[in-house]
Amino acid sequence: MARTSPAMWTAADVQSDTGWILRLSDDASAALLAAVRGAGDPDRPLLDWRREDFALGPCLPTLAAAFREVRDGRGMALVKNLPRAGVTAAEFRLMTWAIGLHFGVARPQNRASDYITAVQDAGTTYRSPTGRGYSSNAELDFHVDSADVVLLSCYNQAPVGGMSLCVSAATAYAIVQAERPDYAAALASDYTFSRNGEQADGEAAWYPSPICTVEDGRVFCKWNRNRLENAQKLDGVPRLSAVQRAAMEYFDAVLRRPQTMFSMHLEAGDLQLLCNHTMLHSRTGFEDHAAADRKRTLYRLWLAPPDWRRLPEGWAAFYGTAESGAVRGGIRGHQYDVERQQFDARQGAAMGMRTAA
Ligand SMILES: [Fe+2]
Questions:
Q1: Ligand 1 centroid to residue 210 C-alpha, Å
Q2: Distances (CA, A) of 296 to 29, 134, 266, 277, 299
Q3: Res 286 pLDDT > 90
């Protein structure tokens, strides 16, 4: 397998070369906590905060290196040693938000147009037509999230399970190209993804996108089995052809080969960053703590950074625009109100970005 970009790696590669794992120094970690505590009430509405409310100085170089690794390197990074001892859940959440304010424009994530979500078992049924994995304890399919970058900060880990799984889309697609060029061609054709009932006013209930697109030698991947299956239940959606369906199954099986699938255990105080164009992720099912304050809790933030790549043209149907330097992606949902629109415009301006129509 000829390596065409640093984003193309095997599980053995990222196990043996851990340059993608970064660690905040104890001083930088303390400064991060001081910045969050110094800013004020952590329960204030998230959209009220401004970038300049948080003086993140000493931890910015490490975080910037992590973002560079996600954009130009392996597509994933792990930052360890976020402050956690004695930190409340509200402070930890605000810390995640503060990091986001320095590196891009947060994007809404669901029907309720939330800009940060607690990844916790809330008893959701993952396989229902409108189900989402983040609020269940189920083992998830591999998928990409619906914005350029996803940040997951780990406040509490589960006592059993909840392993984080990552695959390089470039590696998986190269395997399919080598073994089944007919399936590789099918994966490059348009599939239909359901919006799972999360569409905002003026948005259709589904959208077309290839699963894999190669542009400028890089593989861009869009994969979410639930949304593909759910789209097939909607009126007016083109049916999957036999070869498209077979290609999906083949691709999914390749993702779970030991050669491709990398497994890591996020610990409390870890921050995982993934590029959703080049990386697929999943997690194993978990058993939770009985005590409410110890339950598995991760904070998820979706970001549009100012300096990310141009997307394949076909991706504009979901992202709003393929252009770089634009506030793009996310799930605007049903509550995308004036306050949220103003946040997008204000934070986009602070980052020097255009706000997509
Ligand atoms: Fe996800």
A1: 19
A2: 22, 11, 11, 27, 10
A3: no
